[in-house]
Input
Amino acid sequence: MIWNWEFVWAEALPPLLKVVHITVLATLYGFAIAAVLGLLLALLRRAPVRLVSWPVVGFIEYVRSTPLLIQIYIVYFGLLPALDLDPTPFFAGVLALGIHFSTYTSEVYRAGIESVPRGQWEAATALNFRLTQKMFRVILPQAIPPVIPALGNYLVAMFKETPLLAAIGVLELLLTAKNTGSYTFRYIEPFTIVGVFFLIMSIVASLGILRLEDWLKQRRPG
Amino acid sequence: MREDVSLLVFARELLLAAPVTIEITLGAAVLAFAMSILFGLARLSRIWLVRALARIYVEFFRGSSALVQLFWLFYVLPHFGILLEPITVGIVGLGLNAGAYGAEIVRGAVIAVDRGQYEAATALNFSRSRTMIRIILPQALVAMMPPFGNLFIELLKGTALVSLITITDITFRAAQLNVFTLQSMEIFSVAINVYLVLALAIIFFMRSMERRLGRGLGRVGGVS
Output
């Protein structure tokens, strides 16, 4: 028999259970960075000064068009050491994930901000709100809730990219599975378990996002 | 004291590895396009079994991580006696993965074609397959081009993963040079710009495809 359950319980599964939190934490920390930095990029992109908005657009397009793996290497081997920091692979990996996906979330925020009706801006101007007040008290509270499902999709996408951290030696699920395989010479169980874990998690999360979407639609007046 | 190697040397070394990246990108793109059309249409089949199989393919390859899929193909297939060249594993793995995303693009684009087009084809007594091939797909194809362009870029970015299954692509060479010279910032900056140039080439190619396909439909300049 190809699949060996005894091997699963004794050798393949226990080390994976010990590191599953690394994958989960990398996703959550990475997404926290992407959510905050993405909003910042979306706001800077709207800056009336081209000296600000153009480099931001350039940065977004640049990061979106180039491989995450190279960006992870740049942050880990190049950027952080150049800043005289001695990063752990986990920290560097999470930072790279966050920066990469912030360029995607910034587009989501942008769509949200642009979908707020003009009248809301005009009303805020009529009430003599300052720019920051307009943005944070009037526009963003209306712009962000409808785009939460779209942000959720990038959370799932980022989760599926966390195995790339294995490339800089973060002992997450994939690297742990590979290590188990390399000293037991059985790869099928560890890699299949990891694949199934990603599959179940992302399908459950996608279903959750769909329900959230429905809920948000019902909540909206009109 | 390390010996500084110039950026030009890095650029030359990495460009020598570019054909591998290009080969995998194009190979996987062709496979992904075929899978997209096949499974995108299968998702709309009248036979539930075909729909179910297509759904499983799409959910499976979109749901489990691309790198996990590559590792599985690379390390597990030999256990079944299937020995593939690493480069074949790269093309097949990335192609199947991108194809699952592409199938959803095809499905969406076909659904989006106006109902009147089906009705007109029925009125002209076109068969179902002829309606699809002659009437629906040519119009859907125009709508598919922008999202396919994005998918193409994602595919190019994804090829960097093959460096982790021993294929000597741009990323592999960059990581190797990094170990030899420790000039990390220089090497990876050159590497990322090589990818940027390739991405720009894809963008220009897709733009011209959009224009060409849009021409016959009275939408000169493609869909906006």
User: Anything to note?
Assistant: The CA atoms of residues 28 and 138 of chain B lie 23 Å apart.
